[in-house]
Amino acid sequence: MTLTWNFTPQGMGINGIVGTSMEAMMSNVIHVRLGDTEVWDIVNTTGLEHSFHLHDVPFQIVSVDGVPPTGVDLGWKDTVEVGPESTVRIAMRFTDYADDEYMYMIHCHLSPHEDEGMMALLMVMDE
Question: Which of 49, 83, 98, 124 is the most buried (most CB within 10 A)?
Fold first, then answer.
C-alpha cells in the first residue's frame, strides 16, 4: 500500500483526498483485515517534513529511502518522520481488534497539517 502525502488546491491530503470533513475522510477509508501483516510505503511528495501517525497498531520501519533503519529508527513506533520528497516503508500486523463501524485515524501529527486535511480513516475488518 502506498500512502501519498500531497498538496491539492484545497489543502494537504493523503492519497489526493483532503480530510477536512468526515465526508471527505469516508471517501478515503483504508481497509485492512484482522490478522494480516501489511507493508506500506509512506511517500512524501511535498517539500515539507511530515510526522506520520497511525492509531491502533505499532509498526516497525523497514527502510527510509531504501536504506535499512538504524539508531532511533529501530524498534516499535506509532509515529515516524517522513522527510521532504522521501519514502518510509513500514510493516505492522493487525491482531487485536476489528469492527465494521468504528475506525482508527491515520494522520500527520503536526497540528497545522491535520487542520489542512492530512487525515484518513483506517478500518480493520474481520473478513
Answer: 124
